[in-house]
Please model this.
Amino acid sequence: MFSKDTLSYDPLPLPDSAGYSDAEMLEKAAEFLAHMRRRHTVRDFTDQPVPREVIETCIRAAGTAPSGANHQPWFFAAIANPELKAQIRATAEEEEKKFYAGGAGDEWIKALEPIGTNADKPHLTTAPWLIVVFAQRWGAFEDGSRYKNYYVPESVNIATGLLLTALHTAGLCTLTHTPNPMKFLNGALGRPASEKPTMIIAVGHPAEDATVPSVAKLKKPLEEISAFLE
Model:
């Protein structure tokens, strides 16, 4: 994206500005809130194919996220290959069995009870796409020397949020999955040691009998998630 020798500040006029009125801003914000309230995490997918172009476009949207020093320290590995998905599922379920067998501790397992999860992860093979999100802890110039990336977790988290929003906007359902540990994903997907896998996102269409846990519809009210200091 840049080289050692071409690091300079070059300001451009703001290329895009909506310029909405107060009423228009409120209308747009309310429309977006309603749209996001229709986003649901599901665990029951159909194997109905999703065109690669849709996934590519959503990843492009994620790539517009702000990042520390504009280093864009993320990588998205999109997987449709059945054998590779099966390999990921088998390894992830191995770790999940340890997690639910006591590795997580009683408090964590108790907290998960209303969600209805267990060690079986059929979504990892049923969903037509898995997107593995990697955080790039450092980058490399063309000569192989390293440069540091900044605010990596924050930057990757923002990009991941945009990705989930883009996938929802495309009419798809998602499930975020974080087996622990996830280092096996580097080897399975041929990613370098500079990258740390942060999550697996299953992507596809919901099954006809898909459900969501009732607790998932309980969202904290505004006064519990915000403060306005005017």
Q: What stands out?
A: The chain has a mean pLDDT of 94.
